[in-house]
Structure formats: structure tokens, C-alpha cells
Predict the structure of SLH domain-containing protein.
Amino acid sequence: MGMLKKMSHVVGMSVVLLTTFYCMSLTEPSQIVKAASTAKDVATTHWANKEISSVLEKNYMTLYEDGSFKPEQPITRAEAAAAIAHSMAISLNSSTVPQFQDVSATSPYYKEICALVELHILQDNDYFQPEAPLKRMHIAKMLTLAYKIEVDAVNRSEFTDVPNGHWAKDYIESLADVGVIKGVNIKQFAPDQYVTRAQFSSLLVRSLAFTTQVQQREVAYDYLSKNYIPTKNYSETMANDVIRFINHERQQKKLGLLQTDDALTQVAVIKAQDMVNRHYFDHNSPYYGMPWDLATLFDYPYTSLGENIGRNIPTAEAAVKAWMASPSHRENILRENYTNTGVAIAADSKGNYYWVQLFSSQ
């Protein structure tokens, strides 16, 4: 099939049959109190021993003066605020002065509370009730805001004691969807139940672990499905090999080398997995649309964008050779204005590879 003009801003689209190899290319211009790591009242067999040890080691939480952690004691709102602020590694030199009548500059954890108010993680009301026990519904909101976990009304989790109209429903269900928080049983969440210090430690560690997954681009929030999806590349080694071979071709033509772009790679992973999951092979996804639509949906900035795809190609070297044998694919590979690239591979149920290489200029 020759070059097809799909829309005015498309430079080219092609489908190439190479024995059992299939390739396509596309391009589009422009767009508390004492620090310690062990607690005398937390046995190694305690269900939260690992998490408690972690928050103590990192100084997110501290022991009481007698060396106890009091794992079954409800955590106070001020203690929780301090632990969250410390785990976020944010500046405590906030200029914000909350209007809380029950919190003063001499109050414990005053600086931490001010910092969270400034970031809108705590709501600045007349009263904060710093010594009051923290409830499960309140920690759900605090954690989603602190760690920037997306909150929406489309959730798989549902609890009979958190009805429609409950102010914390979306916070609770969104946090449960990503596995940070759970119900007290399969049907109930107990939103008014107090959070113990052991439970809080576990929630904090889970939140940080999920945040790490997001930062390392192992998951991404899909604004269409309203859900976090996995975005781990099938093989970083194979992807890096493609970039190495591509840059060799560009070097031969005295062109600038393409820089590996982790954000663009994540978009490529989403496209490769989408082709496998939805059983198609095309630049135009039946779900996400064209590559530039996909890039925009996942907040990837660019001034120009191109895509090469392939399937049933066994190796990185074979993929690059197949693309270089096709004029439209080669044009993307050797386009002078491209500066960045991301490569992804996904495998279907039969072990066949789907390849996606995205190019961009910034």
C-alpha cells in the first residue's frame, strides 16, 4: 500500500509488507518525640512491623519518650499531618498563617500544618482539632491530595456505608482503586472509624509506593477510562537497541542523535499495549485516536510528532531494517527536526511483538 493522505497535517502513512513483518509510519508537525528505628512495643511478628520500621527509619514518624510506638493508639490529626509533610520532603518555611483558632505558632507540628494548608492538603477552617483522632474518611482525602492521586467518580470500589452524596466518596473509592486503602470488610469502609498509628504507617508506605510507581512511569492515569493503567515496557533492552540502531543511521547522515525520552516512551508503551489489547494494527486507535491525540491525552508536550509501528518482527535490528526499507518510515527516522524518541514493545498471547517508536521535537 502506498502513501495515504489521511488529513492535511499528516505527512505520510504507510503499510509495508515484508515477508511476515508489518510496519506503519506516521508523522504530524507542530504542538513525635524521639527518633529511633525500633519500638519496644512492636514485635517482629506484628502485622505492620515492616511498615512501622520503615516510617521510623525515615523519620516520618517518631517514638514516644518511653521508646514505645503505641501501634493500636489512634493517630491524631496533627501527628498525621506532620508525618505526611515529612514524607513529602517539602519546605516547612511556609509564609501561610492558618486561621485555625486551636493552632498557634507554639503548637506541636505548627510548621508542618502550615505547609499542608499552603498546599491545600488541609482545609483552612476555624478549627483544626489537632489532638482529635483521625478518621478513615479524612485520611483518604489527605492522602489523595498529598500524593496527587487522581480522584474521579468512576471507580470499581464501592462500599455500602459510603453512599452517593457522601463528601468523601470519590476520595475513598479512588484511593481504594489503586490499592492504597481497603474496606474493613468486602462491603464496608467504616468512614468514621479512627485510624490507628499502625494503620496509618501502612497507608503511608502504600501511598509512597504507589507514588514511586507513577514517578518511575510504571503506571499512568488514563483520563478516558478514569483509571490508572500499567505502563511498563516489555523490554527496555530491546527498546534501547532500537534507539541505538536508529541513531547509527542518523549518524551516518550527519544528523543529531535522538535523545531517549521517558515520557514519550510511556506514551509509546500505552499505544503498543492498546494495539494488543484491542486487536488492531493502525496509527489510529479506536479508543485513543491518532498518536498526537494520545500524546495530548497523557500530557506529553511537543511541537511535532511522528510514529513508526510494526508487528511480527522478532528483533530490534529487524525492526529497524524493516523501517529503513520503507520510504515513509525512513523519513521519520531521518527527519532532521526530531530531537526525542521513545520505543515500546508489547507481546500478544501468541508471543508476537508489537513495536512502537514515537519521535518528537520540543
Notes: The first strand starts at residue 13 and ends at 18. Residues 75 and 197 are 5 Å apart (CA to CA). Confidence is low (pLDDT under 50) at residues 1-20, 29-35.
